[in-house]
Design goal:
- Keywords: Metal-binding, Zinc, Zinc-finger.
- InterPro entries: PDCD2_C, Znf_MYND.
- One of its GO terms (cellular component) is cytoplasm.
- It comes from Malus baccata (Siberian crab apple).
- This is MYND-type domain-containing protein.
- α5 (about 210-240) packs across α6.
- With about 425 residues, the protein is of the alpha+beta class.
- About 30% of the residues lie in helices and about 15% in strands.
- The radius of gyration is 23 Å and the shape is globular.
- The longest helix is centred in the middle third of the chain and has 27 residues, at about 210-240.
- The protein has helices spanning about 10-15, 25-30, 45-55, 130-140, 210-240, 245-255, 260-275, 305-325, 330-340, 390-395, and strands at about 55-60, 75, 105-110, 120-130, 155-160, 200, 210, 285-290, 350, 385-390, 410-415, 425-435.
- It folds into 2 domains: about 45-170 and about 280-435; about 200-275, no CATH class.
- The model is unreliable at about 1-40, about 240-270 and about 300-310 (pLDDT under 50).
- Bound molecules: zinc ion (4 copies).
- One zinc ion binds near residues 209 and 211.
- One zinc ion (ZN) binds near residues 99, 100, 131, 134 and 153.
């Protein structure tokens, strides 16, 4: 895909931009009228316009996992987030499911910079609770967003940085660069590798966790052993003369004592293994294609062996949606959803930030009206649709197809239209989930 070239010659990384690439965006600007976005009337006309500007996202195993590090400004799904601002991470209640209190799991991030200087870099991060019970409760909560503080199990954060910032070079990264990020960033939780490690293990007083829940999980699955070893080591180094008897005994038991540094290096490599051991979702790079490039093609035979499986999974999902039809609206909606998706059945993301863009709803019931989308909680300005996550992602995340497994028909993400600059570094945006 040809990248757009900015004045400073940053083609490579501007090539990764997901923006509304349509040529007639100026024209659309002039026609700006509020509140047409959700009306059914001119749906078909708008569909045609939207089709020209939708960018589809697909997942791909990265050749080198380095390419997903934050200084390459990746769009990625699964694994751990590549935090754009690596220091001022979300904290407290923001990191947890409001329903069950578990720390949220990273779903995906989309690098989508804007023209304005303060959003030269701009990334949106989506997290959710892995419990389907919570997502079902969340269904009721999302309608309340205009009225009171809702309890959500899906959260979206927007982070943006100007061209000149303390974390990244003003030069775009070279494709195969082996350079590390300029600085280390905040220490992360030893269990999830996702949230800030703000609590210390009470045993070794060394390893960090985002929450007591993750400390307990880590202790149950092996940290206890390391913890003891670290305690001995600490006793050794802090008071060579006053070693307690128990420490001596323990020392005899664990002959091999790693140096603190080795331990940390080990932990850094362990970060990449977190995915397998700690139930994180598998990690992918998100690549993009304009939907318009699929318009004239037959449903795809060129995508390779995965396509059969994934379209089966999708058909299952669609059939269960079809079973729940409650009226003609749903039937019509389902039909047009099916036709659009069939052009590229493996899409996991549909991105379209042009004015008036709407999500492609699998069913017409349970859609938000304009009034159900809250105002930006920072600038009080309007929020607009930016992208939606498709259920195909569940297939790539190896989520089972059981009754209680996580499932959704679509997750639509709305963001502040102005990409406002509030003092909060990670600003909470809004997600609307439609279940199948
Ligand atoms: Zn939950
Ligand atoms: Zn954690
Ligand atoms: Zn410990
Ligand atoms: Zn705003």
């Amino acid at each position: 895909m040809a990248g757009s070239v900015k004045g400073d010659g940053t083609e490579e990384f501007k090539g990764l931009r997901i923006t509304s690439l349509d040529d007639d965006s100026d024209e659309e600007e002039e026609q700006k009228e509020p509140d047409v976005a959700m009306d059914d009337d001119d749906e078909e006309e708008e569909d045609e316009e939207a089709r020209n500007s939708v960018i589809l996202g697909f997942v791909k195993k990265p050749k080198k996992s380095r390419s997903l590090l934050r200084h390459f400004f990746p769009s990625k799904a699964g694994g751990v987030p590549a935090w754009l601002d690596p220091e001022n991470l979300p904290s407290g209640r923001s990191c947890c499911c409001d329903i069950c209190g578990e720390p949220l799991q990273f779903v995906l991030q989309v690098y989508a910079p804007e023209e304005k200087e303060s959003a030269f870099h701009r990334t949106l991060f989506v997290f959710m609770c892995t419990s389907m019970a919570c997502l079902r409760r969340d269904q009721h909560e999302q309608w309340k967003c205009q009225r009171d503080e809702p309890s959500r199990s899906v959260k979206v954060f927007r982070c943006q940085l100007p061209h000149d910032n303390p974390f990244y070079s003003s030069e775009p990264p070279k494709k195969d660069s082996t350079e590390d990020p300029l600085m280390a960033g905040a220490a992360l939780c030893n269990w999830c590798g996702t949230w800030k490690g703000s609590k210390r293990c009470t045993g070794c007083r060394k390893t960090l966790y985002c929450s007591e829940k993750h400390w307990v999980k880590h202790s149950r699955s092996g940290h206890e052993h390391d913890c003891q070893r670290l305690r001995i080591q600490l006793a050794d180094s802090s008071s060579a003369n006053s070693e307690t008897t128990s420490a001596v005994v323990l020392k005899g038991k664990y002959k091999v004592v790693f140096s603190w540094e080795e331990f940390w290096v080990g932990n850094l490599t362990a970060l990449s293994r977190l995915v397998a051991s700690n139930n994180l979702w598998p990690e992918y790079k998100i690549i993009q294609e304009p939907e318009s490039s699929y318009d004239t093609e037959m449903p795809d035979e060129s995508v390779g062996t995965n396509s059969l499986i994934s379209s089966n999974r999708m058909d299952d999902g669609l059939m269960s949606i079809a079973d729940n039809f409650t009226g003609d609206g749903d039937r019509k909606s389902w039909a047009s959803f099916h036709v659009r998706i069939a052009l590229a059945p493996e899409q996991i993301l549909r991105y379209c930030r042009s004015f008036g863009a709407k999500p492609l709803w699998p069913v017409s019931s349970g859609r938000p009206s304009t009034a159900d989308i809250p105002k930006c909680s920072y600038c009080s300005g309007p929020m607009c649709f930016e992208f939606q996550i498709m259920p195909q992602l569940l297939f790539y995340f190896n989520v089972k197809n059981d009754v209680d497994s996580l499932d959704w028909a679509t997750i639509a993400v709305y963001t502040c239209e102005a990409s406002c600059d509030a003092s909060v570094v990670y600003k909470e945006e809004f997600a609307w989930v439609q279940l199948s």
